[in-house]
Every structure is written in C-alpha cells, then in structure tokens.
From TrEMBL:
Keywords: Membrane, Transmembrane, Transmembrane helix, Transport
Name of the molecule in the record: Glycerol uptake facilitator protein
Organism superkingdom: Bacteria
Family label: Belongs to the MIP/aquaporin (TC 1.A.8) family.
Membrane topology: Multi-pass membrane protein
Coiled-coil zones: none
Pfam family for this entry, one: MIP
Membrane-spanning residues: 9-30, 42-66, 87-109, 138-159, 166-186, 220-242
Compartments, as annotated in UniProt: Membrane
PANTHER family in the record: AQUAPORIN OR AQUAGLYCEROPORIN RELATED (PTHR43829), AQUAPORIN-9 (PTHR43829:SF9)
One GO MF term: glycerol channel activity
Cellular compartments per GO CC: plasma membrane
Amino acid sequence: MEYSLFTKLAAEFFGTAILMIFGNGSVANVELKNTKGHHAGWLNIAMGYGFGVMFPVLMFGAVSGAHINPAMTLAQAINGLFPWNEVLPYIIAQLLGAALGQFIVYLTYWPHYKETEDPEAILGTFCTTDAHNDKANYFLNEMFGTLVLVFGALCCLSLPWGKQDYAAASIVVGFIVWGLVTSMGGPTGPGLNPARDLMPRLLHAILPIPSKGSSRWGEAWIPVVAPIVGAIIGCWMFVFFFGA
C-alpha cells in the first residue's frame, strides 16, 4: 500500500519523537539527580536507544520506511534508493519530531534538571560530546558508527529475509543500535543521527535549565556532518554489494 506524503511525514515525525523519548529519556534517567534510575549504567542507555529505534521501525516502517534520521534519508537519495523530492519534507519532519521528543523528556524530568548541578550530565541528556575532547576522534566515531548502522539496517530490511519478515528485521535493527551503543558508544554517546543531536542541542541552548553550562556549538557540526558521511558510505556499500 502506498501512503500519502502527509502520512509518511507524520510517521517520520512521530517515529523520531519516539526515538528521542526512549533514547534521551534513558540518558536522563541515568544521569540526572534523584531519578529512580540514577546511575543505572550504560546498558540502560543502550537499551533505551535500541528500543527507541526498534519501535518506530516496527510501527512505521511499512508507512514511510522509518528513516527517523536525516542521514539515512540523504544517503538513500544519493544512492538512488529514495526520491529527491521527498528528502526535504522528510528531514523537516524528522527535525521537528526530534524537538518534540526532547521537549517531552525535558518536561517529564524537569524536577531532576533543577536538582542536577553537573552541567556535563545535563548536556548529555540532550546531545553528544567527545569524552576525550578530540574532534578528529569525535568525527571518526560518529562516521563509522553511522556507517555500520545504515549498512546493517539496509541489509536487514531490504534483503529477501527481511522483506519476508519485516517485524523480525525491525527487531534486529534495534539490536544493531543496542550493540553499537555498547561497543562504539564510549567516545561520543553516540549520536549517529543529525536530528538526534542538533535539535536537542538547540533546546539545551534556549530552555531555562539551572546549571546547564555551554551547549558546545563549536563542535555541533561534527554529529551532523559525520553521520551523513558515514550513512552515504554505508548505503553505497549496500547498493554496491547487495543492491542487485
């Protein structure tokens, strides 16, 4: 069934919002003071992001493809897998969805934002940073992480077994994200998604949060550009090796 562009954009909007609620919501639960999950650990965050991707793909994959990521949309268009006339609307829907999801996290965790005095902990619930303050490492980590994500997701969802059992493929994509956060997520978070970093970083800059510190705009281009580069390469690899 072919859905209207409006329906596809609604799917991208709500799917990206759900990604943020599960993903950055899990970070807030771990990092912010006096939450029930305070110091629950990295696996809690990895699980949140894995489910944050898995559920939108299950819910909306058959509607819009559940890109929920501007890097995925651009990469597919550049490699001939997605129509260019839908790229900008998709990205706008994803950006707005990311903003909504992050704002919901902010609202639900507001008492804990007020109690948290560590600006790095607060920033981590919004966007990524490099643990070693190394921009080159930041770029490489986000690039290779997104490359693996996009290549893996396309292999799962587009090869015959995934097309025959889309639900199973969607679950595997969630586990890819879960695994990436546990394996390659140490240096940067990771973001792997321009919308997931840019819009929350913008909200961090404008929302009234005590002790929030800097939004670190000097490095904000990295989690936008690096995932796009990685996604383009990952998508090209899928098309080159398995596209036939």
